[in-house]
C-alpha cells in the first residue's frame, strides 16, 4: 500500500502521417507491423531510409543537379594564329608579322620613300624583289588570300614575275577581289623576302582607250 501500484497499460496504436507518397509495399508492411510497438517504428525508419536513398539515386541518374566539368583547353579552337583557316602550304599570319618591317623601320629604306598604296583594286604590284625570288615564293605568300576550293578564285589568281629587262625584280599578282588585295597589301608590305623588303602597292588599273570615232558621232 505504501508504494503506488502501476496501472496496467494496454497496447497503444501508433500512427504516422507522412506526406511523401509511399509505395503500396510499404503500406502493407506497415499494417503487418502495427502490433509490434517500438520494433515497428525502427522497421519503418529503415524502410523509409532505403526508399529515400533509392529516390535520390533515381534523381541523380536523371541528371538533376549534376555539375559538369568546365571544358578543357583541348576542346577550344585555337584561333590565336589564324582567324581564317589557311592551308599549311601557305605562309601563316604569324610568320608574316615576324618578318615584316615596322613603319619606323620602313622609313629607313629609300624604296619606301613617298610610298603610296594606290587606288584599291583586285590586282597588286610588288617591287624590290631579290633576284632569287621565284613564282613559287610569291604563291607561298599570296596564295593565302585565295580559296583554292573555288574554281573562280583559282582562275583569278595570277602571278606575273618579271625576271629580265627594266621590270626585273617586280611582279603583278591578280587576286579574287579587292578585299583580298587590300588584305594582302596590309599584311605583306614590308615583308623581308631573301633579305629584301617587298614593296606592295595596288597596281594601276588599265583603262580602256577612248574610241577615236566617238567624237565623230552625230550630235
Structural features, described:
It is built from seven helices and six strands, in the order ααααβααββαβββ. It is of the alpha+beta class. The chain has a domain of 110 residues: Alpha-Beta Plaits (2-Layer Sandwich), CATH 3.30.70.
Looking at CATH, which topology of the domain at 93-202 would you report? Alpha-Beta Plaits
Please state the second-level CATH architecture of the domain at 93-202: 2-Layer Sandwich
Please mark out the parts with pLDDT under 50 across 5 or more consecutive residues, or reply none. 62-69, 71-83, 206-212, 214-219
**Which band does the percent of strand residues land in?**
5-15%
Helix percent band: 25-40%
Mean pLDDT: 75
In angstroms, what separates the terminal alpha carbons?
150 Å
Order of helices and strands: HHHHEHHEEHEEE
Number of strands: 6
The count of helical stretches stands at 7
Strand order of the largest sheet: 2-3-1-6
What is the radius of gyration?
Answer: 43 Å
- How would the global form be characterised? elongated
What structural category characterises the helix and strand content?
alpha+beta
GO biological process, one term: mRNA splicing, via spliceosome
Keywords: Nucleus, Repeat, RNA-binding
Organism: Nothoprocta pentlandii
Domain RRM: 122-205
